[in-house]
Structure formats: C-alpha cells, structure tokens
Amino acid sequence: MKSQAPYRLLPALFAQNHAKTLFPAVWQERQPEIQQRYQESLGNYEQQLKAAQAEWEARETERIAWLQRLTSGNLEEIKHTLTEIFTGLQLPFQAATQCGLFFDTADLISVNLDLPEMEQVILFTQKRLLKNGEVREAARDKVERNRDYFDLVTGECAFIAAEIFSYLPLCQTLRLAAYTQRPKARETDPIDTYVLDLKFTREELKVFNPEATPMHPFLVHSGARFQMAADYQLERIEPPSWLNHEDIQSAPVG
C-alpha cells in the first residue's frame, strides 16, 4: 500500500535525461531534413498567399467596376443586377416562379410579381393539444387564414423591395404589381388575378418597423391599392396602367 507517485514519475525523468543526452547528436542529423521540410512548406504557403491575394484583388477590381457602373446609371448593368437578384432569392414557399421587371430610369424599378396561391402556403388545419395529452387537427378559421395570407404576400413584396434597394444605390422607388391564380367565375375571366398594386420608397421602407406599425396601415399610407373583403380576403383589382410597358421581361425567382 505504499505511495506509487515516485514510480510514476521515474519513467518521465529517465526519458527527459536521456533526451538531453541524445539531443546534440540527433539534432545534427535531423536539422537539414527539418529545415528542408520547413522551407518547402513556407514556399507552398507563400505561393498560396500570392494566388489568394491576386484572386482577391481581381474580385475587388471587378466589384469596384460593377459599383461604378451602377452608380453611373448604366441601364444594362442595372438590368443584369436585377436578374441576378431574383435568381438568387430563396423563398421558402416557392420552388420557382416568374417575375416581370422593367424600368425607364435608374431611380424607378417596376416589378410584376407572381404570388403563391393561398392553398399552397396557408394550412387549412392546425394541431391542438388536448387536456388528456392527445394531439388533434382542427380546422382553421377562414378569417385567420386570410390574415395570414395578407401578411405573407405583403411581407414578400417588402422583402423584395428591400433586396432591390440594397443592391441598386440609385433606385429610390419601387412599383410592384402582384397577382395570383384563381379559378374562373366566367369563361372571360382571367386566371391571373391581380390583388396588390404597391409602391415602396427607399426612405419609407428604411424607417418601417413592423413591430411598431402593422403592414396594413403602412401600405395605405404609402398609397397602395388593394381591396380587402370583410373576411380579410384580397379581392381582384384592375391591373395598374403602368404594366403596359414595351420593355418588360421575365426573370425566375429562386
């Protein structure tokens, strides 16, 4: 039952003393090999560093040229950047959709947006926990579903406007017409039903706080045009006149 501490320390002390004895001779043999490996590693690192610096400088030069074209009002570059914006958008409720866009000047962008159908994005039922611990699905109220759909599609429009403003420094106003697909009541009715005609300005959207101001009064104050029924369903409106544009083009979203 004697202490084992001295016996545990003895191998370490022995190895340390043995290493001090062997170090001068072994180091003379290993020094050239170690220094050669170090020089090779240093050379590889310097080459990688130079390549990374050259790549960064090339990207930075390209980014500066891109910003100069945008700030100078180059319409072709604005059109290309808009296409890149919509192609790169990742929306959780749409795998792919089409968005028409056009503009006359660098400070005004117009968007014709295909909204998701309510049946695809708003659930008809919700799960509820009963007192006995069981979980059952219950039908959701139509008013609640319509409110959720309004918040979803208007939030999507505000998000798209914010993305455009963040990429295009000269853009000050965004006009946005949004439509969805609904069954025809008559044979002459269009399948694409317009429900929103919105206008966002950079300054108004920059100070908008959804926690302090609901989306509905914000849109009304900004001059938006939409019809809301008593059950909060977005009803059909006439397409805005500014949609009749010769330079309209489509871009995929996502």
Question: Any key phrases for this structure?
Answer:
single chain, five-stranded mixed beta sheet, two-stranded antiparallel sheet, 9 strands, 21% strand, elongated
Q: Which consecutive residue ranges, at least 5 long each, have pLDDT under 50?
A: none
Distance between the termini: 74 Å
Structural class: alpha+beta
Helices, by number, come to 6
> What is the spatial order of strands in the main beta sheet?
6-5-2-1-9
Beta-strand percent range: 15-25%
General form: elongated
Task: Please give the number of β-strands.
Answer: 9
Walkthrough of the structure:
The chain is an alpha+beta fold and 254 residues long. It has one domain. Helix content is 49%, strand content 21%. The protein is built from six helices and nine strands, in the order ααββαββαββααβββ. It has helices at 5-71, 75-88, 118-121, 142-167, 202-207, 215-221, and strands spanning 97-105, 108-114, 125-129, 135-139, 173-181, 192-201, 227-228, 234-235, 249-253. β3 and β4 form a beta hairpin. α2 (75-88) packs across α4 (142-167).
List the helices and strands and how they pair.
Blueprint: H1 5-71, H2 75-88, E1 97-105, E2 108-114, H3 118-121, E3 125-129, E4 135-139, H4 142-167, E5 173-181, E6 192-201, H5 202-207, H6 215-221, E7 227-228, E8 234-235, E9 249-253
Parallel strand pairs: 2-5
Antiparallel strand pairs: 1-2, 1-9, 3-4, 5-6, 7-8
